[in-house]
Amino acid sequence: MSRPPMPLSRLSTRVTVRLTTLSQPSWISIPLPHNSSTSVTIDTQKPILFVDVDGVISLFGFPSSQSDLPGRFHWVDGIAHCIPEEVGGRLERLAERFELVWATGWEEKANEYLPFILKLSVSALPVLTFGGRAVFGSSHWKLEAIEEYADCRPAAWIDDNIDDQCERWAKRREAPTLLVRTESPTGLTDKHVKQLLRWADEVAADQEHAAAET
Ligand SMILES: [Mg+2]
Question: How many distinct helices (H) and strands (E) make up the chain?
């Protein structure tokens, strides 16, 4: 079997690998680990977008008497979650410019349910784990895992519970950092997508400018 065109470019976060365990050799494309030592460099990687779920994708706090609900309900481990269909398309648009990473107390459950519910073109995203530190209604317990994953890469974070500790973390970072707050009854909107894409454009322009000067 001839090898398919190598899709790995300096802008790619995926790599093609040969499956040798099959009787017929085949090739698959898999995401690169975030600490990969390949030719993908910090300057050419997409920025990371850490994505919260409750209050961003799964909505709550809207009036229960509201006749026009913001989305369909889906059962996840016995709990009904209101998830608007439009959120899937919004995440797909963001995935063109960001490496999306689940940053949610759902942890692995996000991959078990959300790519299917949201009709995402990928079956799984990288996911942060928090060692039992998750507390509903706050977000600073995510900082350690976010800091470790982001390292020195540009990173945005969308969450309905950005607090002062998160703000201080963002200010301390040397790499470009953007915090985006959502409202739990409305979650991720087109306005947030526009804001994030504009920021990604600015980061890319700054990186190109810096590369041209070296
Ligand atoms: Mg939340």
Answer: 5, 8
